[in-house]
Write a structure and sequence with these properties.
Blueprint (H helix, E strand, L loop, with lengths): L1 E8 L6 H14 L3 E8 H4 L6 H18 L6 E5 L4 H11 L4 H5 L2 H8 L7 H4 L1 H10 L5 E3 L5 H18 L7 E3 L30 H9 L18 H9 L2 H13 L4 H27 L2 H30 L5
Parallel strand pairs: 1-2, 2-3, 4-5
The structure holds tryptophanyl-5'AMP.
Length: 325
Amino acid sequence: MKRILSGIQSSGTPHLGNYLGAMKNHIEMQKDHECFIFIADLHALTTVRDPEKMRSMIREIAIDYLALGLDPDKTVFFRQSDLPEHSELAWILSTVTPLGLLERAHAFKDATAKGMKEPSTGLFTYPVLMAADILLYKPDLVPVGKDQKQHIEIARDIAEKFNNTYGEVFPLPDPYIPDQSAYIIGTDGKHKMSKSYGNVIEFFADEKTLKKQVMSIVTDSTPMQDPKDPAKCAVYKLYAYFATPEEQKTLADKYKKGGFGYGDAKKILLAKLLEYFAPYRQKRIELQSDLGYIDTVLREGAKKARKVANKTMAEVREKTGLNFK
Ligand code: TYM
């Protein structure tokens, strides 16, 4: 069985980009993969500075995953900060990581281009911690959205650097990025869906917020009575992820016929999202009433993760000479 590993930051309510680009795949892959999924709370520290918010967002994202079908008996589900091995390996890897490799990272360049005033060192070395997250577990595949592809390439480069310096420890991880969900565009129709662009649809938000987000999807100015091209419309594209082929055809026909406005299409999308996520929303409510269970799941997950992480760290200590014989 192939091993997968992936993570999500605990920095806010998950959106359709997270779901379609990553979470949905992770849950589907449980049936025929050995899965390690973790909450990247150390990464979230680069943006979340309120301890109460941090604590609650860690639990919330755990609840979200479990509600969506993550099964802790099948998947090792844990919190990054429960394992000091992540930070420890990140430091060791940083000592073989060329500065230039990090200077080329898009995520850091984007954050500073968006006007971040004093970017922290942590934001700059973010890909090194991510490499440590991945390499500790020696996964075959890292299922992520396309926006994380470069980070995985950096992890491969760092693994190679380490192996070349000290001898073979880390297999090179491969990204797993299914085409259809690789890059979900946000409600602005321009950028990837991301909290930092303010263009998200948060599928677990209350109905009023969800409606507002769906209604805010930017469409072109084709008049109501004119035929429209569904393939060019963000509303239709999002609908297609959740609808059956027949439902997709019915909506596409309405677009092409004309006399059908984008507002109507948005209402259909909203209804579909509410229908699709209804059982998960229900499950979410149930899970929220038992936070003890959530904490136990994460604690048990950390125990299982530690067995694997410790083994890798023993090899790393041996190779680097950080152990006494
Ligand atoms: P994060 O928390 O930003 O996102 C979690 C997952 O959601 C995917 N995603 C998207 N996919 C398609 N379209 C979008 N618009 C979209 N927005 C988000 C992301 O690609 C990701 O798979 N650095 C990571 C967390 C991380 C990690 C790791 C992932 C830390 N260590 C090790 C894999 C392996 C991040 O910020 O993801």
